[in-house]
Every structure is written in structure tokens, then in C-alpha cells.
Amino acid sequence: xxxxxxxxxxxxxxxxxxxxxxxxxxxxxxxxxxxxxxxxxxxxxxxxxxxxxxxxxxxxxxxxxxxxxxxxxxxxxxxxxxxxxxxxxxxxxxxxxxxxxxxxxxxxxxxxxxxxxxxxxxxxxxxxxxxxxxxxxxx
Length: 139
Description:
Blueprint: E1 5-11, H1 14-23, E2 27-29, E3 37-41, E4 46-52, H2 53-56, E5 73-77, H3 81-93, E6 97-98, E7 104-105, E8 109-115, E9 121-127
Parallel strand pairs: 1-4, 5-9
Antiparallel strand pairs: 2-3, 3-4, 6-8, 7-8, 8-9
């Protein structure tokens, strides 16, 4: 069995967050969704659990960080530069914020960062491994 990742995120408005993630290509798994949580599926191995603040607090006593802070940036690979741009456009049109950091274009790799409605940071990126320069790690 392949290992799976479940990214758990606290959200202020479950319905709004579900709509946002659907705009990013995720689908809802109703078997793990109720009025306090939603399982949003990107692939067989990548899932995002959207948890209301009340539900989140049943897992940890740690505070929920304010939306204008960052603790982690989750990066999702895309099939093309066009797909990277489409994710950012969909984010802006569905309650998120595109280009929270300057876009990165290194020729062989292109990426843009976005935030969901609760400020969780995602980076969409495209990379052509065949075009990576031999000195790329030094940059």
C-alpha cells in the first residue's frame, strides 16, 4: 500500500473552504465529511482535512495562528506553467489570494504562491527535470 498524506488545516468557514479547494482541483470525500470537517482529495495519496476551529481544538491545545502568518508552505507540482497560472487565478476567484510572494521563474522551474481563505500557504510549481542546470543546487 502506498503511503498517504493527510494535511489537516483549521478553517473558519467550512463551506467557503470546501468551495476554494474544489476550485483548486480537489474533490470531496463524503465518507469523511460532516458539519465539522471535510476530506478533500487531490489524488489517491494526497488528502486535505478541513477542520472547523472547534474540531481542530479536539486534536490540539496549540493556538490557531492568525491568517497573516506562515508556518509551512505546501507545494503542489503542476503539469505546465499554464496550470500554475490557472491555480492562482482560481485561488483569486474563490476567496484566496494569489502571488503572496513574488512569482519565481528559473527557466526550468516556475512557481507562484497563493493563500487559501484562512491564510494557509500553497505553492503551485512546474518543473522540467531535463532542463535543470548542473549548478541549480547552488542557486
